[in-house]
Amino acid sequence: MTALAELLKFSRPADQALSAYFRSHRNLGQQDRAFIAETVFAVLRRKRSLEAAAGSAAPRDLVIAALVRIFGLSGRAFEATDADDAALAARVKSAAIARLAGAVQADLPDWLWQRLAAEYGQEEAAAIAQGLLSPAPLDLRVNLAKLSREEALARLAIEAAPTPHSPAGIRLKGKPQINRHPLFLDGSVEVQDEGSQLLAYLLAPRRGEMVADFCAGAGGKTLAISMLMHGAGRVYAMDVSAKRLRELATRAARAGISNVHPIVLSGEGDVRAKRLAGKLDRVLVDAPCSGFGTLRRNPDLKWRHDATAVAELAAKQLRILNAAAKLLKPGGRLVYATCSILAEENEAVAERFAAAHPEFKPLSCTELLAVQRISIDTGKYLRLWPHRHGTDGFFAAAFERR
């Protein structure tokens, strides 16, 4: 209950808050930690419907509601400990959630449900919401510069299968501790959602080119880009966070990659980035966003961001895209991407950029991926959904500098 109460403050990301809780409760065993983590994240995913079933937003009541509605405990499981808990469990079990409003059934804030329903219609919005409530698989990207996907599958000795779209992807069954596996430790595989892997194939860097990952973060896509370049050429990993770029350095060393050059940016108009203006062959802008496409993994985001925050993010995304576009030389390719599901952060930003920059020609993402022998048709833009593609929610638009 204490852990959930801390997470429900939404003062910081849920995984950080939970890690801090575990650090202050070192007496908890591994099983206790796993139970607490699974329970509190279940509450974060389904907070609206659990509140409706329990008739309460109190952390203890939400935990009981989750144990009954999500984990299948009966009211009798609580009878020996507390009569009030047993009565609450019985009420929760009989609650008719299906009759409640769409936002409650979808376990979304009202504004987000209304936005999705307006953009995609009620039926598709419900399917999107359900997909975002389903468990996320654990995907790996094979470092094809080191070994083939077939060899990685054979050496993993874990139940797994190739991902349906990414040529480098493997989808594991369950959630094994892959970070202790020899293939992970020697940089042969990295944890990366299949949708994120496809962004590197959309950028399609070639050997010997100069490429930038403009919002590199901890570098998952940077490493995928370097892999496709076979280590030849130069990849500038740019980010405002020095800490995240240090994580990238560790991952690059593990993968045996030496052509990545980190640049800590002071902002969108950083002087070091300006020196590269007009010189780069490819630029990826995986822009900071609401992250609503990752709600399967980060359910707290839907409670931490509101419509005002999304509008501010969209304005920031366009500024970043404008700055990154200056790095490209004629004939260069620009890819704008987010892990958002909202048109305001996606199509609207891409279209505003295209309208303001006639020197950039929009490209068809479907056609670009087809050249990479990846068959996935979502039209001009790349649009990936958990309920349709099994990936996180992703958006991408591609442009060529004329």
Overview features:
402 residues; alpha/beta; Rossmann fold; eight-stranded mixed β-sheet; 12 strands; 47% helix; globular
Give a written overview of the molecule.
The protein is α/β, with parallel strands linked by helices. It has two domains: 2-100, no CATH class; 193-401, Vaccinia Virus protein VP39 (Rossmann fold, 3-Layer(aba) Sandwich), CATH 3.40.50.150. The chain has helices at 2-7, 14-23, 30-45, 47-54, 59-69, 76-79, 83-94, 102-106, 110-120, 122-133, 149-156, 182-185, 194-203, 220-228, 242-255, 271-274, 301-304, 307-325, 347-356, 365-371, 386-389, and strands spanning 138-142, 160-162, 169-172, 189-191, 210-213, 234-239, 260-264, 280-286, 328-338, 360-363, 382-384, 394-401. Strands 5, 6, 7, 8, 9, 10, 11 and 12 form an eight-stranded mixed beta sheet that branches. It is globular.
**CATH top level class name of the largest domain:** Alpha Beta
Secondary structural class: alpha/beta
Number of strands: 12
Q: How much of the residues is beta strand, in percent? A: 15-25%
CATH superfamily of the largest domain: Vaccinia Virus protein VP39
So how many helices? Answer: 21
Q: Which ranges are low-confidence, i.e. pLDDT below 50, for 5 or more consecutive residues?
A: none
Helix residue percentage: 40-55%
Largest sheet: 8 strands, mixed
Q: What is the general shape? A: globular
CATH fold-level topology of the largest domain: Rossmann fold
Distance between the termini: 58 Å
Number of spatially distinct domains? 2
CATH architecture of the largest domain: 3-Layer(aba) Sandwich
